[in-house]
């Protein structure tokens, strides 16, 4: 898979996620703003065929449950469920890529790598998954690409759609039925920031317990989610005075 292998050129991923636009370079700024709101349809069967050839059946079933969970969670928060569906379906495209391939694709696309990515390239499957979504399936939507990129480590300042996909990956029904998971499922339907905070802290606790390395992006996501959770809790409180 080279870059760009698809007829639609979305540019390099870092650029795509930091610049306002996107696919068609000859449109006026006004049209671009309007275009940004329209989600390009995804050929779901084409993605399923690709997944059938590149991931085991167990993983495909997880992916389908993440897609469904992301749709439901997006609908619960009145977010764009079609973007959630696309990101859910595409989130683990690179899950079975070998470490060398993950590093090569990430570097070729100019992604900024943390030393932790070199030590544990598997974490790059999220970022590289967005590259595959763009190059194999022509996905150009910034929010969808970002949600795919952010599904494992999160990101400080990520969108609500990214929070939904990040959480859907953790709470989909196949993850289990423990008390903690059921609490996280409830929390995910109450407050997205609190649930992201909880997920990061659970993940860090487990990494510490196993004496494993922690990617700094998890801590950055956790600190951001903590601040957002505190702000959202404050704004939830009823006003005590009209002054
Ligand atoms: Fe993943
Ligand atoms: Fe996943």
Account of the protein in words:
With 243 residues, the chain is an all-alpha fold. The protein has one domain (13-234): Hypothetical protein af1432, CATH 1.10.3210.10. 64% of the residues lie in helices and 0% in strands. It has helices spanning 13-18, 29-37, 44-54, 57-76, 81-90, 99-108, 115-119, 125-137, 142-149, 160-171, 179-190, 192-209, 216-236. Residues 62, 66, 91-92, 169 line the site of one fe (ii) ion. One fe (ii) ion is lined by residues 62, 66, 91-92, 169.
End-to-end distance: 61 Å
Hetero groups: fe (ii) ion
Mean pLDDT: 89
Largest sheet: none
Order of helices and strands: HHHHHHHHHHHHH
Overall number of domains: 1
Number of strands: 0
Strand content: under 5%
| Structure annotation, total helices | 13
Helix percent band: 55-70%
Kindly provide the radius of gyration, computed on alpha-carbon positions and rounded to a whole number of angstroms. Answer: 18 Å
**Molecular shape:** globular
- Show unreliable segments: 1-7, 18-30
CATH architecture: Orthogonal Bundle
- Tell me the structural class: mainly alpha
CATH superfamily: Hypothetical protein af1432
Highest CATH level, the class: Mainly Alpha
CATH topology name: Hypothetical protein af1432
């Amino acid at each position: 898979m080279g870059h760009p292998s698809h007829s639609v050129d979305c540019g390099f991923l870092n650029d795509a996620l930091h610049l306002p636009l996107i696919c068609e370079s000859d449109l006026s700024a006004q049209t671009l703003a309007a275009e940004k709101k329209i989600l390009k349809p995804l050929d779901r069967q084409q993605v399923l065929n690709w997944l059938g050839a590149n991931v085991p059946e167990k993983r495909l079933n997880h992916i389908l449950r993440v897609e469904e969970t992301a749709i439901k969670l997006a609908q619960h928060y009145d977010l764009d469920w079609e973007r959630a569906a696309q990101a859910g379906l595409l989130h683990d495209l690179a899950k079975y890529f070998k470490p060398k391939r993950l590093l090569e694709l990430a570097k070729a696309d100019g992604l900024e790598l943390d030393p932790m990515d070199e030590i544990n390239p598997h974490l790059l499957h999220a970022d590289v998954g967005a590259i595959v979504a763009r190059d194999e399936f022509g996905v150009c939507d910034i929010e969808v690409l970002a949600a795919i990129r952010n599904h494992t480590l999160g990101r400080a300042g990520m969108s609500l759609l990214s929070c939904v996909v990040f959480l859907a990956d953790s709470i989909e029904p196949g993850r289990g039925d423990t008390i903690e998971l059921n609490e996280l499922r409830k929390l995910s339907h109450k407050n997205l920031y609190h649930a992201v905070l909880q997920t990061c802290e659970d993940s860090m606790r487990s990494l510490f317990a196993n004496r494993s390395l922690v990617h700094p992006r998890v801590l950055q996501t956790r600190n951001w989610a903590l601040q957002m959770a505190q702000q959202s809790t404050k704004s939830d409180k009823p006003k005590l005075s009209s002054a």
